[in-house]
Amino acid sequence: MKAVAVGLLAGALLALTSPVFAQTTATMTLGGDQYAAGQQVNMSTPATHDVFAAGYDVNLSAPVAKSAHLAGFNVNANAAITGDLYAGGFSVKVTAPIGGDITAIGNNVTLDKLSSVVGNVRLGGETVTVGAPVQGSALISAKTLTLASTVAGDVSFFGETISFAEGAKVTGKFLIEAPKPIAVPASVAAPEQITYKELVAPDYANETGRTAETVVKQFWPQVWATISWFLLLFIVGALLIAFAPAAVLRLKSASEQRPFRKLGFGILTFAMVLGLVPAVALTVIGLLLVPFVLVLVAILWTLGYLAGTYFLGARLAGAFVAVDSNLAKVIVLAVALLAAALLGMVPFLGWLITLALVVFGLGVISVVLMVRWTARDAAGLATAPVAPLPGA
Q1: Residue boundaries of the structural domains of the chain
Q2: What is the CA radius of gyration of the chain?
Q3: Gap between the Cα atoms of 378 and 380, Å rounded
Q4: Is-contact 75 95, C-beta < 8 A?
Q5: Cβ of 93: how many Cβ atoms within 10 Å?
Q6: Which uninterrupted H or E stretch holds 241?
Q7: What is the dihedral of CA 247, 248, 249, 253, to 10 degrees?
Q8: Model confidence over 256-284: pLDDT tens digits?
Q9: Strands, E, within the chain: which ranges?
Q10: Among 9, 268, 337, 391, whose Cα sits 20 to 30 Å from the Cα of 120?
Q11: pLDDT value of residue 203
């Protein structure tokens, strides 16, 4: 089928480059292959290799040494083809011997009694007529099939009805998939050759309804979970703004100084927090602490996301308006959380934005904690008594 696509594409290009497409047929010969495209295409020169033709009326009237690829509204293969035939159109008719396989699709597909097929046939259409003897097997999908010749191999039919004309015969297995059983005369195939399966048409309306119902059932829990998470972050942030203003101010000051350094500290903090999980799980006793460590990781992740989102939002808002009152800070918090949630939904980049906010927030928190702990250690060292040196 790849060869079909290449050939038909070449034919279409020929047609499009022709300034008088409606009146003439564009042709080309390359490496023994013949290409043609136009309104009325008549392949009347014998081909030493393959044939590719596309148009409204396509007629093959000269023998082909290899395979033929035909596409159009009306397609007629009236000359012998040594290799395979690939055909597609509204009406496809074959009236000459085919030395290989036939693959054809259309509204009406006919293998005339003047034709014969050495290989297999694969046919699809509204109505399909097989009047030519087939030495291979046949795969047919059609609403109505008329069988009027001998098929030496197996036959697989998918459709609604089959009519058997004089001369119809199936030598191999006969598989029928149809909505209702189809009576097959004994002269066509013996009962032990025939296998019937009920062909059930998909119930598209019910399937669509079930799919929509599943989507809705999955959608609303996710919506409520997102809203609950947003409200939780907003409430925690608002409480910190109202009841821990000094701590929030220290964190805000730290976030405004050397922000890229905070990202570095945040990456280290994030790595150390995640590293606690495998480190604790190394021992049997530590395994009991893994759930508590996971809870700690979740809390730190939440605080880091909250801090990174709020302080970045406050920095941006402070460039345009004064953010002095608690009410203004709470509003900035709400807007920042909403913007971060929307940015987190951006394909491919959303998770990176969320991770950057978490890392930045963890960096700010870790710097403030280290400064406070370092100050306390320094004060302790300053007030500690100094032991006299030996011999002093």
Answers
A1: 2-201, 205-378
A2: 39
A3: 5
A4: no
A5: 21
A6: helix 204-243
A7: 100
A8: 888 888 888 888 888 888 888 888 888 77
A9: 25-30, 33-43, 51-60, 68-77, 85-94, 97-98, 102-111, 116-117, 121-130, 138-147, 150-151, 155-164, 169-170, 174-178, 194-198
A10: 9
A11: 64
